[in-house]
Structures are given as structure tokens and as C-alpha cells.
Specification:
The longest helix has 36 residues, at 124-159. The protein is mainly α. It is elongated. It contains 15 helices and no strands. Helix content is 67%, strand content 0%. The protein has 2 domains: 21-61 and 123-331, MetI-like fold (Orthogonal Bundle); 64-112, no CATH class. The protein has helices at residues 8-18, 20-37, 39-47, 69-81, 90-106, 124-159, 164-177, 181-191, 198-207, 211-224, 228-235, 240-248, 253-276, 288-293, 304-331.
Length: 339
């Protein structure tokens, strides 16, 4: 009887396929990426709106399917402020919304604002899917910069631990770590317009966000470098670069992969926070962060301006964090799946 040998990556794949939550998160993540990547096609052929087109006659209008139900919901909210909610309004609101959804589904291009309009009369849903192109791009760029700096400096710091190389790298880490990051980011983004572009903002976030990965890798590599196969590689004349990237780095690749996934979600949230404060991606380019910034003061009379980018940020970061958590368990050989 032939016994099949299972490789490490085969075991990882098997764990991921059995993890239903992680697989569902991957489907959600692929869906979010797909609708943002194909945003121009969706906007032109499904929604019928351009993210930059304005119509001041349709400012802050509710979703088209909820135009009839929205006044009833406002009346319901007012009854709740008096101490007792009038729940009898809900059946009619649901019925009106159902009729509105059917009308939207049968409307032609440009006939339905699925998530309402903003204070310039632009379609919120179109801007939301376009905003994902910028937010996800920033997340990928930031993860790339942080991985490049963090991995290289972490490898050298761990390999040359307790030497002058390690001292210099740790000095840089301690210096950057002592700077109030939020205030520095606000000052740089507010002073230099280059940092308000997707590439500039990603570069800034990446340069000031690699220290944690570098420290983590240093601790892992400090123990890996003393193993027998590393001594054997050096004994046969392997160069430092070969030892680092051929023998040491594969042993910490699981940490790098997981942190890279989490960094994407962290960068999306950071961009949203900076744009919300007015020092991130500036209009007219849509991003989830500046869409939230544009909704300031409108949550009561136009809650869809907050809900639309908020839902996109929530779903995307939820998918990324669940994927990262699943990868962390799958890449750890000591974690066993229990059915």
C-alpha cells in the first residue's frame, strides 16, 4: 500500500479547506476586490453613474428604493424621542421598500441610486466601489513597503544580533517608535501635498509602520540562526545573503504572510482615519475615508452617507482579519484542526 507523503504546504492547504470561516472570508474578500476592480464596468453598464458627476438638484437624496419609506422612518424616529416608538409604522415602511426595490430592479441605467446621493448629488454607491480601488491599493502598497523594510532589516538585525548592525537598526526602531505617529502623519500630510495621493500616503504609512515586524522577526531569527543546518550552510561557504533568504527566511515565512495580510487591513483603516480627519486622500477622488469625512453632520438627515463607506470598510477588514486569523492557524504546524 502506497503511503502519500504530505508536504508542509499541502497540510496548510488542507487546513484552510477545512476551515469554513476562513473559506467564507476568502469568498467575501474576493467579492469585495472584484467589485472594486471592475468598478468602471459596473458604473457604466449596471449603475449608469460616474463617480465625479454632480447634480445639485439631487443633493442628499435617500436611496431611490426608500424614497417613500424614508419620511415614515423619520416619523418613527421622532416618536422614539418622545419615549415610545410607534412600531405600527414598520409594516408600511417594509412594504414601501419592497415596492421600491422592485422598481429599482426594473429601472434602466441611471434610474436608481441604490445608496442615495451625497451633498453634491453624486451617486454614493458608485463612489463607494470606486473608493475601494484607492483604499485597497493603499493597503497593498503599505503592506509591500512594510514587508520590504521590515523583513530585510529584521533579517539582518536577527542574524547580526548583539553587533553594531543590530545596534543601528534597533536605534532606528527606537527613534521612530518614540515619535507620536498620528501627529507626525497629520503634519506631513497637511504640509506636503504628495502625501495626499494614494502612492504618497502609502509610502508614508509604510515607512513608519515596519518596526513591529522587524522586532518580531529579530526575535525569531535570533534562535533560528543557531540551528545546525545554519552552521552547516556557513561551514560549506554559503554567502550571508544565501543563508538569510534561502535558509532562514523560509522558516519565518508564515509570520511574514500573516502580518502582511493584517497590514493590508490596518492600512485601510489608517487611510480611512486620516482621510476622515481631512489629511488623507482629498476630493474629488473618492476613498472610503474621505466619503466618511464628507458625511460629517449628516448622520441624522442622511445616514446613508455614513453607512455606505462604513459597510464597505467593515466587510473588507472583516474578511481580511478572518483570512489572517485562518492563515495563522493553518501555517502553525502545532495547531491541529478538530472536526
Amino acid at each position: 500500500m502506497e503511503v502519500k507523503e504530505q508536504t508542509y504546504w499541502g497540510a496548510v492547504r488542507s487546513k484552510l479547506l477545512r476551515d469554513k470561516i476562513t473559506m467564507a472570508a476568502m469568498v467575501l474578500g474576493i467579492f469585495m476586490i472584484t467589485i472594486t476592480v471592475t468598478a468602471p464596468w459596473i458604473a457604466a453598464n449596471v449603475l449608469g453613474f460616474d463617480p465625479l458627476d454632480t447634480n445639485l438638484r439631487q443633493r442628499n437624496e435617500p436611496p431611490t428604493w426608500a424614497e417613500t419609506a424614508w419620511p415614515k422612518f423619520q416619523a418613527f424616529s421622532q416618536t422614539c424621542q418622545g419615549g415610545g416608538c410607534d412600531w405600527s409604522l414598520w409594516p408600511q415602511m417594509i412594504a414601501d421598500s419592497a415596492v421600491g426595490v422592485r422598481e429599482c430592479l426594473s429601472a434602466g441605467l441611471g434610474g436608481c441610486h441604490w445608496m442615495g446621493t451625497d451633498n453634491a448629488g453624486r451617486d454614493v454607491f458608485t463612489r463607494a466601489i470606486y473608493g475601494g480601488r484607492i483604499s485597497l491599493r493603499i493597503g497593498a502598497y503599505v503592506a509591500g513597503v512594510q514587508m520590504t523594510l521590515g523583513v530585510i532589516l529584521g533579517l539582518f538585525s536577527g542574524y547580526y544580533a548583539a553587533t553594531w548592525v543590530d545596534d543601528i537598526i534597533n536605534g532606528v526602531i527606537m527613534t521612530l517608535g518614540s515619535i507620536p505617529l498620528l501627529f507626525l502623519l497629520i503634519i506631513l500630510a497637511g504640509t506636503f501635498s504628495i502625501f495626499r495621493t494614494p502612492e504618497g500616503l502609502a509610502l508614508m504609512l509604510g515607512i513608519f509602520g515596519w518596526m513591529g515586524l522587524s522586532r518580531l522577526l529579530r526575535g525569531q531569527i535570533f534562535s533560528v540562526r543557531e540551528r545546525e543546518y545554519i552552521h552547516a550552510s556557513r561551514a560549506v561557504g554559503a554567502s550571508t545573503w544565501r543563508v538569510l533568504f534561502r535558509h532562514i527566511m523560509p522558516n519565518v515565512s508564515s509570520i511574514i504572510i500573516v502580518i502582511a495580510v493584517f497590514d493590508i487591513a490596518g492600512a485601510i483603516i489608517a487611510e480611512a482615519g486620516l482621510s476622515f480627519l481631512g489629511v488623507g486622500i482629498g476630493p474629488p477622488l473618492p476613498s472610503w475615508g474621505n466619503m466618511l469625512q464628507g458625511s460629517l453632520g449628516n448622520f441624522t438627515n442622511a445616514p446613508w452617507l455614513v453607512l455606505a463607506p462604513g459597510i464597505f470598510i467593515f466587510l473588507t477588514t472583516l474578511a481580511i482579519f478572518l483570512i489572517g486569523d485562518g492563515l495563522r492557524d493553518a501555517l502553525d504546524p502545532w495547531v491541529k484542526n478538530h472536526q
